[in-house]
Amino acid sequence: MKYRKRKFFSGECMHIYQRTVSGFNIFYDREDFIVFFTIFSVISRLYDVCVLELCLMIDHIHVLLSAESLEQISSFVRHYSSQYALEYNHSLGRHGPLFHKSFGSAPKKGGKKIRSTIVYIGNNPVEKQLCGNAPEYRWDFLAYICNANPFSKAVPMNLCSNRLRKVMQEVRSSRRKNEYLTYAQLGRMFARLDNDEKDYLTDYIIRQYWPFDTKTLLSFYESCEDMFHAMKSTSGADHDIREMYHPEPDSVYRDMIRVVRNECQIVPVRRVTILPPAMKLEIAQQLRQKTSASMRQIEKFLCLRAMQPPDN
Question: Is the peptide bond prior to 310 cis by the omega test (within 30 degrees of 0)?
Fold first, then answer.
């Protein structure tokens, strides 16, 4: 396949779009999102890129960043993609890449184009019916700009349980050493906590590992509220990125996760991707009966068969 030469403007914003190999899902459990996020955060500091926006969808990601060179961006994307694949594969005993080697990219020069892309990325979860408004989706990280605990109850440190204080200390230690959080670490941490504490710890981890240049992001708007209003008023656009689109809502994946976790007793849920084909087919039948998922979505969820990879 012949690839077009990437366009690049030094110091200007670049929209990065990555899709998974074969279009399969890779983000199932809370831990999947956190491991990726902390890896992304740690490696962004190594390459000194300016990250404005990150949105983690079920089977793809969007990043808006700026850097001094195309080589800097390419090395950054390769590094966090391969590092996450190593950690993800190690947790499951599998091999192989998770993201396509070639990623989509589009330079954004000028405030109007950058604002349109900011809105477009923020509204990805809205368009896929994962939330009503962009700040309601945890994994686009927008809610954290105006609220330190948008998805949990703020708890004074002196009222935190001993177990929560200990895992928070472990998070701070890893962050100071610029180390990402592994699946093994998170498994230990969350095993000790109740659901409210898990939500609090998740918010805490995101604040500790915060990789975004919020000041630069908000410089394209009058305020944080102005940016959210723009997202609510329009979907934005990016005609330079060839994103695959299917009309089915991604919200059904949450229903499938509940069935697999609660009824099939498969934890972590990402383990469904490595089950024998016969077991996947049995689960597929349950998902067809108990959710509104299409067969295409069930195949993506279970990694049931090789799907046609997207054009790059």
Answer: no
The pLDDT > 90 percentage for the chain reads 85
- Whether residues 260 and 234 fall in one domain: no
Paired with 51 in beta bridges are 65, 212
C-alpha to C-alpha distance for 128 and 301, rounded to whole angstroms:
15
Residue 294's domain comprises 251-302
Residue 3 counted as domain residue? no
Give tens-digit pLDDT for 40-93. Answer: 999 999 999 999 999 999 999 999 999 999 999 999 999 999 999 999 999 999
pLDDT tens digits along 144-174: 999 999 999 988 888 889 999 999 999 999 9
**What are the beta bridge partners of residue 106?**
15
Please report which residue ranges of the chain form alpha helices under DSSP H: 30-47, 70-92, 111-122, 124-127, 162-176, 183-191, 195-208, 214-218, 224-233, 251-258, 277-290, 295-302
* The model scores a pTM over 0.90: yes
Helices 295-302 and 251-258 pack at an angle, to 10 degrees, of 60
Q: For the chain, how many residues are written?
A: 312
* CATH number of the CATH domain containing 117: 3.30.70.1290
